[in-house]
Amino acid sequence: MGMGKRFRTYGWLGLLASVWVTGCDEAPSANRQEDPCAEPLSLRVHVVSSDGAFIQGATVTATNLESNVSITGVTDDRGLTTAINEHLAPSPIRVVATAGSHVTPAERVEWTCDACHCTPVPAELTLEMRD
């Protein structure tokens, strides 16, 4: 009889623990919100031809002018890449795009930093391929 009573006690505790865990999972919590500082801010870079058409597949490279660290991205069907991000901050960066033998003039981007993020200045670039 002692075994049956012990089993019922543990069964009850298991059920109680199960309800408690489920209740916690469904409860709203401030900790469930994503950390606004976790996701790095990106520089939007469009690459266009001299007549203004978007260039898909262009390689965009941003290089930190002090550390020489680079990030490279490839443009999508809208001529856009957002691969360049604040991991290159806070030093200025040089941004250039290439497609085949064509190269854009280099652009300089600065950063404005706060306690959470570094924002690119300008926040968006349009690089034009030279013929």
From TrEMBL:
Q: Which domain of life is it from?
A: Bacteria
Q: Give the protein's recorded name.
A: Carboxypeptidase regulatory-like domain-containing protein
Q: What is the lineage of its organism?
A: Bacteria, Pseudomonadati, Myxococcota, Myxococcia, Myxococcales
Which species is this UniProt entry from?
Corallococcus praedator
